[in-house]
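*** Fold description ***
***
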Amino acid sequence: MKPAFDSHDGVRFDASSRRDHVESYFLKINDPSGARALWVKATILLARGKEPIAERWAIAFERGAPAVAAKSTIAFEDARFADDAIDIALDGLELTRTHARARPTDDIAFDLLIEDRSAPFVFYPYARMYEGTFPSSKFTSPMPNLRARGTVRMGDRAWNIDGWRGLLGHNWGRKHALAYAWGHCNVWDGDHADDASRDVVFEGLSARVRVGPLTTPTTTLVALRIGESTHMITHVSELLRNRGGMTYRRWRFSARDQSVSVRGELFAETDDMVGLHYENPDGAMTYCLNSKLARARLEIDERGKKTRVLESRAAALEIGTRDPNHGVAMVL
């Protein structure tokens, strides 16, 4: 089902409201070999009793080597977030639907052209779920299967990016979920032009949130695109039977609709993860355990077809927790 409402590209933060707010735009691209990845993020935070800020984040992952990470913070009023498009300018970072650039004086510099002709992933089936107060966290993927071309530089090292696959996502809300696991993959082992796996894009989330004094059960939402067929396994009836479980290094899940079922896991070694501090408006800290070099294994059953098993060394995995004793080195 494709929701009948407008794009969610534009920023949702209203500086005049003074309401608690967190918002992120994020880009990730993966080397087809699974050895390297780039993650870029532009965020907005309005914490209680403070002025709103904008942050730019970037991490270059390389298997077997320490991640290169950079972050800067400026006043929100000194940044640009368009209200009708993905059009961001933030302390030398430019991010739109066509390009991502960061000035060459930074620890991580890049100049990328990006393109995605596929439809976005819109996870909630009803417009009111994006406009109202429930659910408290909103997320979409405007470009779930993009291609990138250009260069990435870290000091005297340079990566040539020629058709790397990736994602550009957008999320916002009053705070970060109490605990969550998010994953995305569109680079699969044995990914060749004549391989059917080239047409598979997976993204999903499992989360627990706090409503007053209560914590909700884990809710799991899954998006699966197979060729021209898109399965948003997010309807209320599907959420009741979807399953998800997470540890600090692994996310397991299962979901199904009337014509397809998917089950699998994403996991990462500690050395392939970095820890990030995500402040909540109330001052509580969420620790994001982030890897863009995670492993993935999916089993997909389509009606009338043989089970397809896909594996990857180039998946995105993020685990969010309030527990500081997670064992991952914090870098930003």
Observations:
- The first strand starts at residue 21 and ends at 30.
- The chain has two helices and 24 strands.
- Residues 128-131 form the longest helix (4 residues).
